[in-house]
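Fold it.
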Amino acid sequence: MRRICYFGIVMIVLISQVAIAQTGDSLQGEEFILRRQVDGSNEHLVLWLNSGTGEITEVHRTFIYPSSRSEPQALHWSPDGDIFYYVSDGEIFSKSGQNATPVNLSHTPDVIEESIFVSPDGAHITFFAYSEQERYLNVMNSDGTNKQRILDVIFPQIFVAWSPDSSRFAFANDFDGVYVTDVDDVNTRNVYNEISTGIFSPDGRYLLVSSLESLGQLVHIDLQTGVMRVLLDSISQPYRFPVPSPTVEWIAVLNFINSRQPDLNMVNANSGEVRIAAESLFSNSTTLWSPDGENVLFIGESADNGVLDAWVYAVASDEATMITRDLRLLNPEAELDTDSFIWSPDGTKLAFHTVQDNRAQLYFVDADGENLTTLNYGDAQFDDRIISWRP
């Protein structure tokens, strides 16, 4: 049964009783990558921020290419956090520290590369490349050696997903659906004929694909037998935008049974159990799973005043907790940048920005809403956004 925990959202609580730490001990030494737009143009700065020292340095300037559908795919960390990979001016670079010299891994001035994905073991990188004549998917060693061309593609920025053991990866092609490639022999096969996004099961045997053509359909594919099982069907239920957990045990999905104000449903991928995690959200509510698959962030209204707040639903307890409650006691007018939320690598904290008077404020909060912390840095601007948290 769904329960929502407000934890003292009571008007008689004195604002002076809410303590907000300035860069608490739990954040010392944490490092982040920020994106900042340059003067309303298509150019963006990618910035490296150290929470311990307050140092902020420019990594590079980048343009958001018209063909890019997901700009954060232009950067990734190695699993151990030692190396930062990013795309700049259409080439792939690695950087081993905030002030380290970048290393060009591609050296292809006549080809634009983008949308990089690092394997879980850190050994390989997939990336899309295109010139005026062609577009294709490549895989290479993470040091830039042994490049191999996998498949020609039409619009290459839909998704790439690595299996947990790094032995294979799945990707979508606008032309004819979803493919899976085995890294050892570069064997590529088509497994689903609709344009989709996907995620592997923890054992790598199954692929869960979410159709972008039938927006609420979710299909479970056995990669050994080829057997497909429909988990969600947008025809029988008004489901839209399903997001599987990293463990592929639960699926967060918007249910538009109430028309324009959907409920957030949680569907168990094994048993089919359906829970109502929250009711009457706004139509494009964000849902974001924690890395361990135990909690999911969503955005909703805490009152009938149109103000948006952030909530975390815990699967184990079947409870939703408003994590911006202390923020509202201190600053009821603060506007959330709802696209700025990002989980810490261990799933215990969230970072997010608020915007007020054309200035961004960076906050951190525990997954249960406790320990709201601010971090002041440099000349924070209203369109700053954290796009990566160093492992």
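Residues 1-19, 65-72 have pLDDT under 50 and may be disordered.
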